[in-house]
């Protein structure tokens, strides 16, 4: 049996639960961070913590499993610093796609960058697209990628 990557999940809502099985195929969830976590709580034997506990947790990848990923990236940037955030944080909808747009972006290896308290997605040819709020989210990344592709 292959060794699974240890990960921290941010978000314990429906978005996470609809992708949990995909995530667990290659990853072992060591804990969940959630802004609504109660002290000493578990769900399916997975501990749930407030995000402020991040400094006490292992230095592993953090997968944001909520549609509010822009706010979460900014929050994690404040808690961990930009360098750690850029190194550790991934967006669940890009890693574990369910929609057509998410699937295309997953294949495009889009990555996230936090810089000067702004969130960017980087697509092919290092093109940066700034994300300003979650209503733009994945759709804006997808449109930006397609506009970039058409220019080539």
What does it look like?
By secondary structure, the protein is of the alpha/beta class. Helix content is 38%, strand content 28%. Strands 3-4-2-1-5-6 form a six-stranded mixed beta sheet. Strands 7-8-9 form a three-stranded antiparallel beta sheet. Helix 1 (14-24) links the parallel strand 1 and strand 2 (27-33). Helix 2 (69-80) packs across helix 3 (82-88). The radius of gyration is 15 Å and the shape is globular. The relative contact order is 0.14.
Q: TL;DR of this structure?
A:
This protein is α/β, with parallel strands linked by helices and 152 residues long. The protein is built from six helices and nine strands.
In terms of topology, how is this protein built?
Layout: E1 5-10, H1 14-24, E2 27-33, E3 41-43, E4 46-49, E5 61-64, H2 69-80, H3 82-88, E6 89-91, H4 92-95, H5 100-107, E7 111-115, E8 118-123, E9 127-131, H6 137-151
Parallel strand pairs: 1-2, 1-5, 2-4, 5-6
Antiparallel strand pairs: 3-4, 7-8, 8-9
């Amino acid at each position: 049996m292959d060794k699974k990557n240890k990960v921290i999940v941010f978000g314990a809502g429906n978005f996470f639960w609809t992708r949990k099985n995909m995530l667990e195929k290659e990853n072992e969830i060591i804990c969940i961070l959630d802004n609504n976590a109660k002290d000493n709580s578990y769900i399916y034997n997975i501990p749930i913590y407030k995000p402020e506990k991040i400094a006490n947790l292992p230095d592993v990848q953090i997968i944001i499993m909520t549609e509010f990923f822009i706010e979460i990236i900014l929050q994690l940037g404040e808690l961990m610093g930009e360098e750690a955030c850029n190194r550790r944080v991934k967006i669940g909808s890009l890693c574990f796609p369910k929609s057509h747009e998410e699937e295309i972006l997953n294949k495009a290896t889009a990555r996230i960058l936090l810089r000067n308290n702004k969130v960017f997605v980087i697509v092919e040819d290092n093109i940066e697209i700034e994300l300003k709020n979650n209503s733009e989210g994945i759709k804006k990344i997808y449109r930006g990628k397609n506009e970039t592709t058409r220019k080539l």
